[in-house]
Structure formats: C-alpha cells, structure tokens
Write a structure and sequence with these properties.
The complex is a heterodimer of chains A (248) and B (252). With 248 residues, chain A is of the alpha/beta class. Chain A has a domain at 5-94 and 158-231: Rossmann fold. Chain A contains 10 helices and 10 strands. In chain A, a hairpin with a 2-residue loop joins strand 4 and strand 5. In chain A, 48% of the residues are buried. Chain B is mostly helical and 252 residues long. Chain B has 2 domains: 8-138 and 225-251, no CATH class; 145-212, no CATH class. Chain B is built from 10 helices and 2 strands; from the N terminus they run H-H-H-H-H-E-E-H-H-H-H-H. In chain B, strands 1-2 form a two-stranded antiparallel sheet. In chain B, helix 3 (43-59) packs antiparallel against helix 10. Chain B is flat and about 60 Å long. The chains are: A alpha/beta (248), B mainly alpha (252). Chain A binds chain B through residues 49, 52, 54, 75, 78-79, 82-83, 85, 87, 89-96, 99, 102-104, 106-108, 115, 135-138, 151-152, 155, and chain B through 3, 6, 131-132, 135, 152-153, 155-157, 159-160, 202, 205-206, 208-216, 219-220, 222.
Amino acid sequence: MSGGVELRGVSYAYPDGHEALRGIDLTVGAGERVAVLGPNGAGKTTLVLTLNGILAPRAGTVTVGDLPVVKEHVREVRRRVGIVFQDPDDQLFMPTVREDVAFGPANLGLRAAALDAAVADALATVGMSDAADRSPHHLSFGERRRVALATVLAMHPDVLVLDEPSSNLDPVARRELAEIVLRLDVTVVLVTHDLPYALQLCDRAVVLDEGRLVADGPVSEVLSDEATMAAHRLELPFGFTVAPPAHC
Amino acid sequence: MGGAHRHLLIHEAGPLHRLPAQCKLAATVLFVFAVVATPREQFWAFGLQAGLVVLAALIGRVPLLSVARRLVIEVPFLLFAVLLPIVGRGPRVDVLGVSLSEAGLWAAWNIVVKGTIGVAASIVLASTTPIPQLLDGMERLRVPRVMVAITAFMLRYGDVIGDEVRRMSIARQSRAGSTGRLGQVRVLASTAGALFVRSYERGERVYLAMESRGYTGTMPVRSVAASVRSWVLCLLWPVAAAVVALVAWGLQ
C-alpha cells in the first residue's frame, strides 16, 4: 500500500558551487523506517528536499513509488512525500490549526465534507482534535510539532519525512511523538541527531557525510560500529550503549 | 508588539458574534463612509450616528467601558487635530481667552467627531469577530487574495517575530548591553538588522513548507456564504447612518 523511495546516483550542488550530495544510491522499501544520520552540514536536509522535487538533482534520478520525481508529477509526488520540517513555526502559517491542516488537502482539491473529514482524521491521529480552532501561537512547542505532523498526515502521504522531530521537545512530548509515529502505517525517513530516537523508531540507518552515503545497515549495527560512528562525528549520548545485533 | 489582536475579541457569545464576518465588515466600512459624508455643521446628526454605534455595542454585549478604553488608540491622531485651531488662518474667535482660528476649529471638530465614531465602530467589529473570520470575510468581499494572505501572514508571524525580539533583547540584556541612550540606539539598529535577516530566512523556509504541501500560488478558501437575513440585519446600520447624513444635508 505505501510506496518506497529510490535514489539513483543523485548529486546536487548549490548555486555557490557547494556540492551537497555526491552520487547517492539509496532504496527505501515500502513500509520501511530508515534513519538518516550524519554530522551537521552532511547534506541531510538537501537529501530531504530532493525527495519531493523542491530541489532538482543535478545528476541522477529520484523515484517515489512508481513515479519519477519530475516537473509533471510534482503535485502527486508532494502528496506522496510528506515532509515535517524542523521548526513548526515555519510549517504552521495559517491563523488557526484547522485551516493549517486543511491547507495541504485543499491544495490537492479536497473541498467541503471531504476536506473536513481529512482535517478531523489527521488531528485525531496526533491527539490534537481539541485544538482545531486555536491559533498555532497559543500551543506549546510539543503541540505545535504534533500539529505540524497532522498538516502532512492530512494529505495521506506514502512516505513521511521527519526532519529532527525530537528537537526542543521535553521527554514526555518526545515519547508521545514516537508513539504516534510508530502507530502510522507509512514509510518513514527520519533525519536526526537523536540516535536513541533513531534506534527506537527505525529498523535501518544510513550515515551521510560530505554528501556521500558511508554506512547502511540495521540501526543497531550502525550505532554499535564505533569506528564508523567516530569517523563521522556521531556518538551516543552519555550512558548509552547499543549491543550489535546477534548474528545467527 | 505582537499579539495585541488576540485581546481585541471579547469572548461573549452575543448576537453580533454569530453574524457572518463579511456582512459586519461591509456594514462597518459603509457606516464609516456615511459618517464621513455627513456635514460637520449638523451636530445632532453625529449624536444619532454615535447612538447607532452604542446600540450595536449593546446588542453585541460589548461593554461600553471597554469601547471607551480602546478609543485611546486614537489619541496620537487627535493631537494633530488639536493643533489645527491654533495654527489655522482666517477669522479668529476667542475661546476662554485664547484666540483660535474659526476654520481650524471646524476642521478639528470634523476630524475628532468622525474619527471617534469610525474608530468606535471598528472597535465593535473587532470585539465581536475573531481574526480568522475577519480574514475569511475579506476574501468573501473579494479583497485581492494577495492582500488577505499578507494580512494573515502578518498576524501569524507578528507573534513569532515579537517573541524573537523579546528573546534577542533578553540575550542582549543578559550580556549587560550598554545602557546609555546612544549605545541603546546602536544596539537597536543592529537588532533590527539581525531581525530582518532572520525574518527573511524564515520567509524562505515557510515558503518551502508551503510548496511541500502542494502550494501553487492560491490560498484555499474556507468561508461560508451569508444569508440574506444577515446582510439585511447588518446593513441596517449604514442605511440608518446614510439616512441621517441625507437629512442633515437637506437641512444645510
């Protein structure tokens, strides 16, 4: 039911010449949950923006489900790939929560009862139904993050991309968000520095550094590979250890 | 700065709260036009028009005291009007021993009375209509969608940017920023610059987020059509004010 994502030899350079992505090959299967790890400036956000056609790769192809990410499919691609950005204040720009959640599905052509149902569904999924008529400004940070997730879920994406979803959340809000994400039946691409969060939410992890994929494997294997981790400025927070997966 | 608008709405489910925003908005604008068109020499006419605003406030369960308090926003504009009789030319009259220009007095009276009634009318509107509904109403009234969108963004991000200013100023004070007048001005200027850059960058990120959700240049509309009854009810006010203005002109 939910589609996967395939990147083949994807490269991207910013207008100033900075090469953010250098030949990325990555296949995310339908329903898979993949963590994208890497130090600051590794190209994680650039990678995310190529997934829904906001940035067009200089070389290589991106495919979402059966659709290549090109101009003529951009509308459907943006329905299929839902991105939750890091700062909910960037994502929530309408006067009320309800209007904000309705923005995406309305752009897809939903109206009246179908639109109301999509909004109600999405808000119920993130447990924010009571906030529908409030202004985003009056919500707590954790609540805003959940509403930001709802704005994307209302479009029924096949692939959910979360950019640093746990940043600035208190421990309870962090856990609540994880519970919501784990309940969803979608492909998940989780971009994060929060390695325990990646371990909790994902089956697989890839490490991106200087625009290249340098590691790819089961999340516990990647996180327990101390040499690779150290080489790419990744480390578990104090007091955490991850046992490597038992090989049979 | 930001956030003042959310205190304008008075949370009381009065009958005016339930009327569609587009009717109230159109009625308020037309009412103000009628007031402005009334000849300034007919004092009684302004009494009646002020009475209409008071009546609307009473029906809408807006406390008159709060309308009066909010009228204070008008004061800076009135200062200009107060100057007119002093600097005005032409024949002069003595008021309490001060020689004032007659034309200036008329001009000042004209500004004060029409301004006050107009501001009072918009206070009643703002007290009985939530901001999102006002925006919907603007769209229904065919206000260009770009303008509606800009207004909506301004209201949404006024709060966010206001918070940013507060955080920046706390950070500055925490580092014992200079307290002298001149020093403050310099710091303020650089804060404004930093704020501009930040807001500009935020604008780009907001646009990315909008594009990611399928934005192609038009904002979705979600307002409802108003019934003929609501239109008639709301338009009673501007019609009454216009009748007063017409009679006043007839008596000129």
